[in-house]
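ok so I'm stuck.
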Amino acid sequence: MAVTTTRTLPAQFVEDLGKDLATQVVAQSGVPVVSTGIAGISQQPGEDAAAFKARQDAAQAFTTRQQNLSGLAPQVAQQDDLQQQAQTLAQQGVASFQPFLDRAQTQAQVAAGLGTQALGQLGTAGTELTQAGTGLGTAGTTLGGVPLGANAFQQDVGQFMSPYQSQVIDATLAEFDRNKAIQEQSIRDQQASLGVLGAGRAGVQLAEFGTGAARERALLQAGLLQQGFGQAQAARQQDIANRFGLAQAQQGLGGFQAGLGAQQQAFTGRDVSQLGTLGAINQAQEQARLDAEREAARQAAFLPQQQLDRYAAQVTGLMGGYPGQTQQSFVPNPTPLQTALGIGSTLAGLYLGRKDGGRIGYAEGTDKEGIMQMADIDMLEDEYEKYKFDLLEQRPDATPMSFEEFRRMVLSGQG
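replied:
not stuck anymore, here's the structure
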């Protein structure tokens, strides 16, 4: 089978650009991508000298490109004065509440000290106040350190009796007895002046006076005791009120201290939030700076590839305007019979001499038989033998036609 290839080439300058582009692409593919200067390059374990030299050259070229592109490198705006002042004020405000909390805590400690001092001044009963938080005590006989029940109340009131109560009673009774003796003597003096001293009626009078005086003396003593008990009871009630007042004061102080703790936690949470906000602002500023540096390094590192891509796009556009074409046509190879008939027809044509579109004439007669008689039969037989050889070589099982059939086909093809 015959193959015919036809190529239409683009303009010469386009072909030259394509070759140059291919050369640069191949050369660029072997250049390593380096995003650091020569100072950041060191030979790695297992790296040969040629590869290290290539990376050094790429690093040197990167530094040069980075310097050339410094005017186009991305920049990050710094914080202005107002932003810096705001950040400074925000940082100064962190933990600014601490002096006030410390002062409040100091005052609370002073108040607690005064309360302790007041508890100490309450006497032995004040020690019971320290057990106020235990509720009803171990056996349920006290409430906030105060004994419960009548007996306990009386016993506890006795602790508040005046230590001078007995002396006051004794002095009062002694004065009562002195006055009684004076009155008895006055009665006797009256009886003596009347001459009835020692009489029965005088004795009854003295007896009645003694009974009344004894009754009055008992009432006086009971009144003194009752007065002392009332004073002690009032003192005890005041002591109870004082103890409960101190307990409430301590509870209030505890609540105040708890409030200080909660307030400190709230202030600390606000400081944490404020510091987190400032940190996020500073982190965003730093991240923007790092992104700008990365973008500048990327521009310097991939500038050759970008330039080559632009060059390739331009060359591709030119090649699109001057397209090359390649066409191929496939012609089947002639069969042995077609080859033999073609050659036979050529031989026959040699004896059909034609000139100016007309025939010269026939050597013997006017039919084709006569013409073939003029041909050299040996040459036709040679072609017949080539036909048989080619046919059997291609198709060993084929049966060639006879020479007479071959000759007639040659003649019929010249009709």
